[in-house]
Amino acid sequence: MNMHTPSPLPGQAIVHYGDGDYTLMRPGKFVICAVSGKQIPLEALKYWDPRTQEAYAGPEEATQAWKRRNP
User: Fold this and answer.
1) Please, are residues 35 and 48 in contact by the beta-carbon 8 Å criterion?
2) Which among 45, 50, 19, 16 is positioned nearest to 32, based on CA atoms?
3) Is there a contact between 13 and 26 (Cβ–Cβ < 8 Å)?
4) Residues 3-7: contacts with CB within 8 Å, 24+ apart?
5) CA distance 21 to 16
């Protein structure tokens, strides 16, 4: 984290997203969707982008993020 990264919420995990898996850097119960801002329980986390290190609540949010980066 740097001075521009908001402090994690109580219970928020810090995650490093890889290709096909992720690593918990700080344990928690959820991550935040980069598009919607929704809390995503770790057991429901299925969509992320390892290049941008962003998590997405579902396929719609992942598609929105992809379209935003690829106009």
Assistant:
1) no
2) 45
3) yes
4) none
5) 9
Q: Whose CA is closest to 32, among 61, 66, 60, 3?
A: 61
Q: How far apart are CA 29 and CA 61, in angstroms?
A: 20
In the block, tokens 């969509």 appear at 47
DSSP designation for 10: T
Helices (H) and strands (E) in the chain, counts: 1, 6
pLDDT at 71 over 90: no
55: exposed, middle or buried (C-beta count within 10 Å: 0-12, 13-18, 19+)?
buried
CB 13 within 8 A of CB 40: no
- Over the stretch 12-31, which tens digit does the pLDDT of each residue have? 999 999 999 999 999 999 99
